[in-house]
Each structure stands twice: as C-alpha cells, then as structure tokens.
Amino acid sequence: MAAPLYTTASGQILIATVGLPARGKTHLSHALERYLRWLGVKADAMSLGDYRRKVLGGPKSPDTDALRRRVLEEFDDTVIDFFNGGGQVVIYDANNGTQARRYAIREKFGKLGVHVMFLESICTDKSIVEANVRSVKVSSPDYVNWDPEQAVADFYKRIQGHERFYEPIENPSFPYIKVINVGQQVIVNNIQGYLQSRVVFFLMNIHNRQRTIYLARAGEALIDHLYKADADLSSLGWQYSQRLCDFVIQHRQQAAQASIRRAKDGILTPGGHEPGTGPGMSGRPLEVWTSARKRSAHTTLAFADKGFRVIERSQLSEINPGVVDGLTPDEIRAKFPDEWDKKIKDPYAHRYPRAESYHDLSIRLEPIIFELERATSDVLIIGQSSVLRCLIAYLQGRKPQDIPGIVVKEGELYEMAPKAYGISTTVVEFWDQVKERQLRRGSSTTVSATCSAAPVLEAMAEPQVTDVVA
Fold it and tell me: Taking every annotated instance into account, which residue ranges of this chain make up the domain 6-phosphofructo-2-kinase (predicted)?
C-alpha cells in the first residue's frame, strides 16, 4: 500500500463539530473527510445522529431519552476503535453545544493521546438555515412519511430546544476553528501542526452553494498514446468535441426546465431559491477548464465559439509516462521487467524513470481541488483519463489506492453535484466510440451525414445514476 501524502506527525486528531442543528456541520464534516482521504490520511466522519438512529431505530422520543447516555458512550467507543485500528483523523459530527460536553470530549480523548480540536459552525444568515432545513433535514430518516411543512415546523422546534442550552466556544486555550455562514468568515485559534493547518486552509475555501461539476475526456488525437507528440485532434476528435458541446448545452437546458417544473410543484432545488443560482443556461454560468495540451485545449474550442469562458490550467495536464511513453504493456514488460513488477504491486505510488506517479499527479492537482471548492459557477473539466481519475476519486471520497482502477470512458459525461452527505454522481453516455469508428470505415456519405447530424438526447442511453455518500 502506498504511503499517505501527509501523516499526522503530532499524533491522532479528533475534530469535534460544534453548532446548532441545520448549521452545515454535516456538510463540513463530509467535505473535510473527502479532502483528508484524498490526501491519503485515514480519516472518517462519524455522526452521532446516524449512530443513534441505527441503534434506536428512529427519532428521539420520551421512551428513548433514557438511552441517550448509553448511546453516547457506545458511539465514543466506536471512535476509539477506529483510532485503535490505525485511524488518523476522526470528524466527530455532533452538536456538542455545551462547554461541559466539550470539556468531557477533550478529557476523554486527551487521556488516550488524541489531539482534540473543535470546528464550530455558526449561521447568522437565516436563508442558509432555511435552505438546510428544507433541502436536507426534512428528508432525513427522522421525518419519513411526514408532511414537508409539518416536518419543517417540528425541526424548528427542535432547534429552539437546543438554543436554550447552546454555549458558543469561548475558551481561548481550546484549539478551534469557527466557520461563519459556511465559509464567509473563518476564525482560527491555537491551531498547531501541518495537517491541522491544511484543514484550516481547506475550510477557508469551501461553501455550500449549489453547483454542478462535469467531467469529460478529451477527443481522439492524431497520434494517440504518445505524450511527447502533444498531437492535435483527429477528424473524429473534432467531431467528438462538437458533439460534447452540443450535448452539454442541451443537457443543461433540460435540467433547468426540470428544475422549473419541480419548483411549480413546490419542490425547491437546493440553492435554487436565490435568483441566478438555478441550474442550466438561465441560472448558474458554466466555466470550462482544460490543460494547455493540444488534445484537451482544442476539445474546448467548440465551447469558446459558443461564448463560454474557457480557462487553461497547467495542473490539468495528463500524467507524464517518462521512459515508457508510447510503449504497449507488452513492450514495457519486456524492456523494464523490474519496473513492471513494481507497477503491478503499487500502481498508485510507482513511477517509471523520468515519469510521474498518480501520487505525484494528486499533489499537482491540489490547487485545482481548492479552485473547485471555491467555484460558485458550474464547471466542466475536459482532460485525459489520468487527471479525471484523480478528480473523481476526490469528489467521491475514495481512497488514493483506488485511483488507477477508476474507468473513465470516452463518450461519458460525469455530472457530479455536491450534497450534504456526499456527492450525487450521474454518468450519461453521449458518444459511442465503437459505433463512430465503424461509421468512419463506412462510406464517405455516411460519415458526412454523421458529422452534420444534431445530437438528440432522447436517442441516447438512459443515464446511470449513482448516489455516492462519503
């Protein structure tokens, strides 16, 4: 197994969330867990609420309140078990709204040698609380089969009950981070160590505004699988780039229309309650990011011609294969047998001579990760499969060792929308590379008709939808 990108030299860390309900604690917890896992840190976001529902089988009631202390102790034991099993960081997702509770956490885990820091989420913007309640809380297991408005009213009563006892963090000796309005302002106190500093920097770059991230491979090049050539698109690659542009525009327009229909039925798109933040052409704008490599950059030209903002980012360049550039697997095995064996044993961390590993590529992409977290518009990233594998692994909260095995096919559009509990991923096929190449081998008349034909969404495969929860 590859070594993690970063280790906790100061020991194990527990990050305990603090805040009233519907303040975005779970959103922050899962975003932080996703980032730490992508770095290679063995981290887990553990929710007291989820554990309570698992043990008690439903919402709180007078009959179950007597079990609260036992459930809390058992939950703490699961956190300790994670640390004993080699875990490095736990995000302890709970209200922890009193000074007494926070002192108890610090004493209990401090005795075990775990460094405790607190993450307090404060919301002074009532619209953020309203959006959190309506888009997340009323759909929780506590409100199954409830009328939505009754669920909202009940949850606000729950918030009022917590407000009577809530005590904000004021102890200057506590290491803590205060995040106000999910990223509008961040207050830091007594933070120590490199990894804790990375946590702070990450939290300074995130928000909870609704947006969609699209990922697609670049078109076919004239000289494929040769990094040094930096070849331009083939004629089929140019056709692919136009099809991708037409499909994305039509797909977003349909998403906007679907959002309008849901709104008429009283179903609000999260974040869409604010003017100019809905999906599609009439809502959030779309930026297209790509590398300076010809194959990727020229795939975006159709978008530039349509007036979309296209940004070239050097970090998005494909992985450098080094001395094995242009070689087939059989040729690599024959010329570099020792290196081949090392690659098979550790495909994530191994690098061929004068090459990059996926580990190196992940480090190179870290600025892109922060740009994605800061982005308030929709973003389409067009690049090579190696880059897209790393970004998918980050967004889905997967382990670094999973990256080399992620399959990203030409002709697939990944549509990824951040949610409170993870990432919703939809994969839509818009281009059949086998069929298109077969048509190329047919008559020139057939090819001409294929090139000029407008893409029709209804004729394409139904999208495969996968909800990924970190």
Answer: 9-208
- Give dist(CA 390, CA 407) in Å, integer: 11
Range of the domain at 144: 13-203
Q: Measure the CA–CA gap between 382 and 148, rounded to whole angstroms.
A: 39
Q: Is residue 347 part of a domain?
A: no
Residue 5 counted as domain residue: no
Contact 325, 227 (CB under 8 A): yes
Q: Encode pLDDT of 336-359 as tens digits.
A: 999 999 999 999 999 999 999 999
Q: What is the distance between the alpha carbons of residues 390 and 122, in angstroms, rounded to a whole number?
A: 32
Asked if 15 and 199 touch (Cβ cutoff 8 Å), the reply is yes
d(CA 390, CA 374): 18
pLDDT in tens, 240-259: 999 999 999 999 998 888 77
Report residue 415 as tokens.
């549509």
Alpha helices in 57-193 (DSSP H): 68-84, 99-110, 126-135, 148-163
Number of domains within the chain: 2
446's enclosing H/E stretch is helix 444-452
- Do 249 and 271 meet the contact criterion of CB atoms below 8 Å apart? no
Q: Looking at 336-421, which runs of residues are DSSP E strands?
A: 378-383, 412-419
For residues 319, 325, 330, 332, the Cα torsion angle rounded to the nearest 10 degrees is: -90
Tell whether 103 and 245 lie within a shared domain: no
- 260, 364: one domain: yes
Instruction: Cite the active site residues.
Output: 93
